[in-house]
Amino acid sequence: MPLRIYLGAVYLAGAAAAGWMLATASWVVHGELQAVLAVAAVLLVLGELFPMRLWSRGNPQEYTMSGAFALVLLNTGPLVYALLPAIAALLVVEVRERKPLRVAAFNVAQNILMLGAARLAICAIERVGVSDPITGVPAGQQLIGLAGGAVAYFLVNNILTGTAFALSSGSGVPRSILSSMREEFPVTPIVLGVSPMIAASLAFSIWTAPLCVLVIVAIRTAVMIATRHEIAALHDSLTGLPNRTLLLMRLRESMADATPERQTAALMIDLDRFKEINDTLGHSVGDELLKVVAQRLTEITGSRGTVARLGGDEFAIVLNRTTAATTDRLAGEAAAAFVEPIRIADMSLTVTASVGAALSPQHAVDAEKLLHLADLALYAAKQERGRHAFYDPESEEHSTASSVLVGELQRGLGKGELVVFYQPKVDALTGALIGVEALVRWQHPTRGLLPPGRFLPAVENTPLVVPLTAHVIDSALAAVRGWRDRGLAISVAINLTARQVASEDLPRQIEAALALHGLPSQALVVEVTESSLMANPAQTRTVLGRLREMGVGLSMDDFGTGYSSFTHLRDLPVTEIKIDQSFVAGTVDSVRSAALVKSIIDLAHNLGLNVVAEGVETTECRSVLTGMGCTMLQGYLLARPMPADQLEQWYAAQLALTAEPAVA
Predict the structure, then answer these.
(1) Are 121 and 149 a contacting pair, CB within 8 Å?
(2) Could you give all domains of the chain from N- to C-terminal order, each with its CATH number?
(3) Which residues contact 250 (CB under 8 A, 6 or more apart)?
(4) Is the pTM higher than 0.90?
């Protein structure tokens, strides 16, 4: 209601001012002033019809030259000669841009009031209505009056606009007026500031009009150059989207007006398979993919906010005046936007996106902090691809604890606190020791012996995983070398994470470690889970293929728990599969589990693969698995993980206890 009353008041004031101007208008001009007024009127119309575009504080703004020529007309001839061309040009622009009637009416009334205020200021300062009719050259006092008119023109413009924005947005009126003035600086004051020079030039001689045109061209050229530099500094060159700098500017603007009911949302978006596509198909395909991603995110967001590219395959969205429910919906739309394959160069590419979101003022009141919290939410979402997640304070506490744990682990690695235990894998029929699985433990100085589940999740996505992997490989191969020197010819299996198994340097690292300890490649088996294979399929296949060519064994761990197990058996040079313990535990009591396990064992035999059942904890389970034809067994029934120096003692004890073909 206040906005409607205000707009109505502006309409009435503009109409009254226009009526008074027309009723008291003087149409009489003398001599050369007719040509001067005609030239200034034409330049006014052209200045209004062809605005200049400039990026001001991260937002595109339009500036016109019409104000300068309106002031010249006000200072040179009767008021009506400025009013009519100004309103006519403005109406053409409003119709061309299809502005709503109420907006067009406000703009017309606003311009009438601006011209009236400027005329009053000029007259008050000069104490005369027009230039000297004898010389046609404005005197010094008249130039001061023209400057005063420019100030009045500028102030009325921003007061009227700022008040309207304040009433529509609910923000403070003084603050909105000052914000409007800041947006106009420095272009509008410069444009209005050249009006005395143009007035003096035209009053001196009509033939100086080309000089006025040169001034206009110079200003427009300077604005164009500044705009190009501003766009380059604030936008991503590939997609044309705002970059991080502009995103932060927009985010701070939005957060300044945010309330608990109308919040600002920051969404972080990351593509899950972009690196694989970029590395496999080339950067040109990757660039085209990023352009399509930018387009889809922009279409989803619309006018509700800003989409930005932060770098690589990372994008962000800022939503203005939103709610948690609206943000959740848009985050879901963004995550689902890439279900439909993207066609590039006759190829159909499938990617998934993960989205993390945080709200202001609910979660943070600082722009950088809000983006950081959205990034934490993104990390949580990436644990399951194609998801979206909101920031959860508990996740930040977990992240902080993880960071502390990683720091302690780095120190512990240097101090030799990371030790490797070994769990035997035995022949299901004879009980003979065939190999061991290496399992890292952390002998923490205050927390005691920690299993891998207590620290590996915090490390696997950090650079520390590289030296940790090297330590486990070196320790395991050193143990195998010692056992073989004492007549125990067994192999060791090492578990690798998704990041490790996708490392191009892994084959060289393993080859060097085998050579260092004088071991054949058959002494090592690499265990990978299906989830690690899915993280970067193309790169993983390449790395595992190179390892297999070296002679290193390849075991698929947790077989049967994923959706693509059989596909991996077809595409990868697997030598062994390990049946997940969730299936193994049900072989005695569940007919369905037993049938599944039997099918896996038969499949492995048909493909010529070894099959290991892990998690064997009862004699009944061992008997069932042996009867099914399982090749190897592993579990607490047979032996718990143990240090390297205890393995030989355990094996000797097993040989001494029984001469039966199976382990007791």
Answers:
(1) yes
(2) 2-234 (1.10.1760), 244-391 (3.30.70.270), 401-656 (3.20.20.450)
(3) 58, 242, 306, 318
(4) no
